[in-house]
Design a protein that fits this description.
alpha/beta, 374 residues, three-stranded antiparallel sheet, 15 helices, single chain, 12 strands
């Protein structure tokens, strides 16, 4: 089956910010080569050419980091040129970039607009909360500079969304944050639970998110969202839209809600490929875009083992009334039982509390939307 999305890291983990909770910094510390530097145009060419060869109907190139804009605008112009050159089958090509927004200027905005890039900007709530953990390389706050650049994206009519990492302070202040986002007109939002360092017992860091706090966060956020939904003024919140879509019979769009991992063939700056952004580690390496086809990368033993390991959920999960919606959550949040070798999500009680309080209302919305489509 062809890959629909190719995740590309043009500058490996290099970044102009120093976020305390950065999961990729943690990954870099745990591999033999911490940073693979800047991606060459030859490697970019090999990735795009091989991605386009196997594409069917539509493909998305998603650029991540580190901070991908550090590679410079000319690199992205080259990417768009290569996409057009190797698109011999009339494939619809989408481009997306996840950025901290710190280095954007008018030239970037014009490029994004003219080439229909979807821009994800990382913001963690209000200025006070965001600046707790998201500092620049000199240790200075970044919120006001990033917000100014988001306003510039808006002025240039660039399509963008806001990605918020849910740390303990974000969870505690979600009412205030939701209000701030509404005031700013940030109508496309995504929230992802903060990751503790790999291999470390969850909940030990200042920013760590407890299961109780995350369950409360989801419930409070959903109820505010639902109140606006009833008035026809709700923002798009990816997680809730996915749950309601699943209740309507659609497959989940977000990988954490599928229950089983897929192999994404994430491309590091040197061309090496890995199954997932959360597992760009030596033991999971699949091969190299410079010397192997995507089919060969997908056919490796490491790829098969990665998917197989994600199926090892504990019996409690399979027997849970909310399994059809939760499906065990993201593998990166699962904790392995040493005796059975099976996994249970660290946020299991979070989801039970959330679905128990809000699942009924989501079913009502799903039923309403299904009737509306008939």
């Amino acid at each position: 089956m062809p890959l629909h999305t190719i995740l590309i890291k043009p500058v490996s983990g290099l970044c102009n910010m120093r976020c305390d909770y950065c999961f990729y910094c943690d990954e870099m510390e745990k591999r033999e080569v911490a940073s693979y530097g800047m991606m060459s145009e030859d490697t970019l060419k090999n990735i795009v050419k091989k991605a386009m060869r196997q594409a069917r109907g539509e493909i998305c190139f998603a650029f991540q980091g580190g901070e991908p804009t550090l590679r410079g605008l000319e690199f992205f112009r080259k990417a768009v040129e290569l996409e057009a050159r190797f698109n011999r089958g009339g494939v619809r090509v989408l481009n997306a970039i996840q950025t901290n927004g710190l280095g954007l200027d008018e030239e970037w905005c014009r490029f994004f607009r003219d080439n229909n890039f979807l821009v994800g900007v990382s913001v963690d709530g209000t200025a006070a909360i965001h600046d707790l953990y998201r500092m620049d390389a000199a240790g200075n706050p970044t919120y006001e500079r990033i917000k100014k650049n988001i306003d510039m994206l808006e002025a240039y009519k660039v399509e963008y969304n806001i990605l918020t990492v849910v740390t303990a302070p974000v969870a505690e202040h979600i009412r205030e944050i939701y209000g701030e986002y509404k005031k700013n007109g940030w109508n496309y939002q995504q929230y992802i639970a903060c990751l503790d360092p790999m291999g470390e017992e969850p909940g030990r860091r200042e920013y760590s998110l407890s299961a109780e706090a995350y369950g409360r966060f989801l419930t409070v956020l959903f109820r505010m969202w639902d109140k606006d939904w009833r008035r026809g003024k709700a923002p798009y919140i990816r997680q809730f839209e996915n749950y309601i879509g699943m209740l309507m019979g659609y497959p989940p769009e977000a990988c954490e809600q599928r229950g089983v991992c897929s192999v994404q063939c994430v491309a590091e700056a040197d061309g090496s490929a890995y199954p997932c952004d959360f597992y760009v580690l030596d033991k999971y390496r699949l091969g190299d875009y410079n010397s192997e086809s995507i089919q060969e990368l997908l056919g490796t033993e490491n790829a098969a083992d990665f998917v197989k390991e994600s199926r090892k959920l504990c019996e409690d999960c399979h027997n849970c009334e909310w399994y059809s919606l939760c499906r065990g959550g993201c593998r990166r949040h699962r904790v392995k039982d040493k005796e059975s070798g099976l996994y249970k999500n660290y946020f299991c009680e979070s989801y039970k509390a959330f679905f128990g309080q809000c699942g009924g209302r989501m079913k009502e919305i799903a039923a309403f939307m299904s009737d509306k489509k008939r």
